[in-house]
Amino acid sequence: MKLQVAIDLLSTEAALELAGKVADYVDIIELG
């Protein structure tokens, strides 16, 4: 099983910051 997170409601800058924080814990990060 893979863990995916979708980040849709933040600014690009905030979304990239959050993606950097969760990158070690999820398999797929979807922005926008």
Structure summarized in a few sentences:
By secondary structure, the chain is an alpha+beta fold. It is 34% helix and 25% strand. It has one domain.
Please supply descriptive tags for the structure shown above:
alpha+beta, two-stranded parallel ribbon, 2 strands, 25% strand
Any chance you could write out the topology, listing elements then pairs?
Elements: E1 4-7, H1 12-22, E2 28-31
Parallel strand pairs: 1-2
Q: Describe the strand arrangement of the main beta sheet, using strand numbers.
A: 1-2
Q: Tell me the major beta sheet.
A: 2 strands, parallel
Helix content: 25-40%
Estimate the strand proportion: 25-35%
**In sequence order, what are the helices and strands, one letter per element?**
EHE
What is the overall silhouette? flat
Please count the beta strands (DSSP E, at least 2 residues each): 2
- The structural domain count equals 1
Mean pLDDT: 94
Distance between the termini: 23 Å
Alpha-beta content class: alpha+beta
- Sequence stretches where pLDDT stays below 50 over 5 or more residues: none
DSSP summary: helix tally: 1
Compute the gyration radius: what is it?
Answer: 9 Å
